[in-house]
Design goal:
The protein is mainly beta. It contains no helices and eight strands. Helices cover 0% and strands 62% of the residues. The strands form two sheets. Strands 1-2-3-4 form a four-stranded antiparallel β-sheet, with no helix packed on it. It is globular.
Length: 79
């Protein structure tokens, strides 16, 4: 299995775990409820920002922006 490298907790208690398999798993009340895919490498950092957005930093040098509401990938920042 993949190694967890990053954790973030939303105000409502939802847990996000970023792993070496380039996925972000979403947990609610101890249950796995969603998997966000699209990172180009292992997820190294997670942060929750304004306007209900989750940011993931991966080893491919990108930051991906996700909707906290439904897990939709909104944009990718490169550099």
């Amino acid at each position: 299995g993949a190694t967890v490298r990053a954790l973030e907790i939303a105000a409502d208690g939802t847990l996000f775990s970023g792993a070496t398999d380039a996925t972000i798993r979403v947990w609610s009340d101890g249950e796995h409820v969603n998997t966000l895919m699209g990172n180009g490498g292992p997820v190294c950092e997670l942060a929750i920002g304004k306007h209900d957005k989750l940011y993931s930093g991966s080893s491919d040098g990108t930051i991906r922006v996700w909707s906290l509401a439904d897990g939709t990938h909104l944009s990718t920042l490169k550099g």
